[in-house]
Each structure stands twice: as C-alpha cells, then as structure tokens.
Amino acid sequence: MDITVEGRALLETGLTSCCIGIVEGEIVRIAKTIERAERHLDFSNRLILPAGVDLHVHFRDPGMTNKEDFQTGSMSAAAGGTSFVLDMPNTKPPTRSIEEIEEKISIASRKSFVDFGIAALLDEKTDIGKIIEHATAFKIYLGETTGGLGIAPESFPDLLDKVAAKEITILVHAEHLQPLREMEERGLKDHDRRRSEQLELDAARMVCSHKPANARIHLVHVTQAKILSMARDAGIHAEVTPHHLLLDTRAHLGSRGKINPPLRAKSTRAQLWKAFVSGLADALGSDHSPHTIGDKEDDFEATPSGIPGVETRLPLLLQKVAERRLDLSQLVSCSSTRPAEIIGLRKGRIAEGYDADLIAVDLKQPIKIRADRLHSKCGWTPYEGMEAVFPYSTIIRGEEVVREGEIVGDRSGRLVKLKGRR
C-alpha cells in the first residue's frame, strides 16, 4: 500500500470503522485492519466521507482573473472538501472551440489543486462534431445571464437532437424563454419579480417536454420544488444550490445577493428545502460565481449577478447534518455520489476501484464563516457569520491537499477522463 487511512468511514453499508488502502491514488482495499503503509493517516476521532463533486463553478479563467482564477478557485474548492469541479463556459472568450477548450485545460492543469472537467458552450455556433471528444459536458443557456450566451428557444430541440446519442451530459440553465420585461430593479424582491418563478417553470417545462429518450440532461440551479418533481418524472437530473436552500428575498444582502435565477420568497425556499431533504434533488452545486466587492457594491441594476460559494457549499450543509436537519447519507448522495454518476466519474464513493478522494470531518466542531479566512480572490461571502463544518483534511487521489484549513498539497489537479467516453 502507498497509504492507509483509518477512521469511521461512510461506506455503501453505512458508517463503519475501517482502514482504507490506497495504491497510485485509487482505493484498492477496505477492511477492518490493514497492515500499515509507510504513510498512515489516523482519523479515528472524525468521520471519513467521499470528497465533494461540484458540477457547477465559474472560475473566470481566462478573461476575468481579477475576480477569480483556477488557482484561487481550486484552493477554495479543496478547502471546502471538494475534489472535482466542472467549469462553465462563460469566460472570455466563451469555451466553444477546440482551441478554447485546450487553452482552458492548459490553464487549469498548471493552476488547479483539484481535479476538473471543462463544460463547452452549446449554441447555434458550436461545431459539435469537432469538440465532442474534447469537452467533459455541454452547457446551454435558456435565458439571459452573465456573458450574454443565451440561445434562441426554437433552436433548443434541434441542439438536443444533435448531441442526444453522444453519451455526454448537457447542463441546462433554464430560466426564461422570452425577453425579460423592462422594469426598475431596486432590490432582491424586484429581481425575483422580474425573473419570476413562472418564467423558470415555463423554461423547465419546455426542457422536460423536448427531452430525447437517450439524452443526458442536467437542470442546474433549480429554485422550485415543483420543477424537481417535473424533472424526476421526465428522467432529467436536477441540481439545487446552497443559496437557494438557505437564503431568500428577506436576506439583508442588497446587490450582493443578486444572482440568476434569483433568491426566491421564504415559502418557495422552504418548499425547496423540504424537497431536498426528501431526496428529490440529484445534485448540490455551488454555482460559484465570484465578482469583486467593488462589482457587487454598484447600483443594484448595474451590479452583475453571481455569488461565491464553492468553499462553503459542503460545510454549510454539513452543519445542517450536525443540527439533525439533514441526513448525512442524503447529503453525500447529492454532494458527491450522484454528481459523479451524472457525468461518469470514478469518484464520489468510498469503494474499491474509485479514486481515493476523501475528507475527514468533525460534526461537533463548527466554525463561523469569515470571508478573510476563505481562499477566493473575490474577498466576500453571503454567508458571513453563519456556522459551518469545514473539513479537517481533504485528500485527492491519496494525497493530502488540505489540513486544518491550510493548503498543504501541490497544484496537481488534472483533467479527469470519463468512464465510457475516452
């Protein structure tokens, strides 16, 4: 064995005191006892969980690295217990061609502390045949948002048909089909009214009604419980975010809370939480969308939409487990196991044959979130002062990357090859 890890681990059979044997970054044996390797990590007083898989981050690299880049974004991910991120295409330039995908892979390979995948933009200009083997996933924007990359709704069915049989996941930002009405936005409630629940519902309904039988579709940042039910019935995967689960239009965030789709009313958030706890969502994504403090303190209408969250995604929800408001297995399913399955990763489980991506946590040791302790370049968080359970240790492919909140590993993140595609 290269390394052994000991503690109370969440296996498919439940929490079990065991030893995990790792060779060349892969879990090769799980047993009550294993002869200790030269490197041995003893987490007997903590829980060992699969590290997180976040299918929705915007690391702003290339083109907007004053807000974030792959180094600071991946440091944030690792410190928050996430070992894999899928980066979205609305960078500058948008990630649409082979050259642009290869540039982003090169950047991430030099900078990243966590493993990664690259989502390519899917729109009317995308040369699908040329980039299908280079992209980890595709992303479609049904609605205007940061980057201005929305498609014409009438082209959506044809785009789906072109990639349905390609064994690649299509992430869909489904928010509105028609141009948004002109109205003054002075705060979070106005933003919610303008980008209304009905508009999101109509967009999601169109996605569900046009799904080809063999298409792999993943709805991102769903804000309503009824859409989760609709997606499940249509055989579509669906993601929720911590901000839509924990924040609503009553939050005293001003323009810092502006995001697309918007924070919703308290009652909508409560229904979404109930659906999440019951297992109706497939994935927990951060939609990490960092903008600088200066960007977010502009006039509300001029402020760009987006909030940071990759470092706090898992810790915030681990705190809900500690408060007994959420089942641990349910959280791990949405934060690790199901996201890995959705795009075909050998991650997200503590099982033989899977990457040795692990976190060690103590649910009895919450800390208050402080922006000055986080690693994002943007320098702020909407969760300032909230309690969260951060990992004591983050291990990626058998190498410890984080210990007690500090980065102790190297920038050894790599593009992950997907099962069945390469």
Brief write-up:
With 422 residues, the chain is an alpha/beta fold. The protein is built from twelve helices and 18 strands. The longest helix has 16 residues, at 328-343.
Record keyword descriptors for this entry.
single chain; 422 residues; alpha/beta; TIM Barrel; 8-stranded mixed sheet; 8-stranded parallel sheet; 27% helix; 23% strand; globular
Structural description of this entry:
With 422 residues, this protein is an alpha/beta fold. It has a domain of 293 residues: Alpha-Beta Barrel (TIM Barrel), CATH 3.20.20. 27% of the residues lie in helices and 23% in strands. Strand 17 and strand 18 form a beta hairpin.
List the helices and strands and how they pair.
Blueprint: E1 3-11, E2 14-23, E3 26-31, E4 39-50, E5 52-57, H1 70-79, E6 82-87, H2 98-111, E7 115-121, H3 128-131, E8 137-142, H4 156-163, E9 169-174, H5 188-194, H6 197-209, E10 216-219, H7 225-234, E11 237-240, H8 242-246, H9 266-277, E12 283-284, H10 293-296, H11 313-322, H12 328-343, E13 358-361, E14 367-368, E15 387-388, E16 393-396, E17 399-403, E18 406-407
Parallel strand pairs: 1-4, 5-6, 6-7, 7-8, 8-9, 9-10, 10-11, 11-12
Antiparallel strand pairs: 1-2, 2-3, 4-13, 13-16, 14-15, 16-17, 17-18
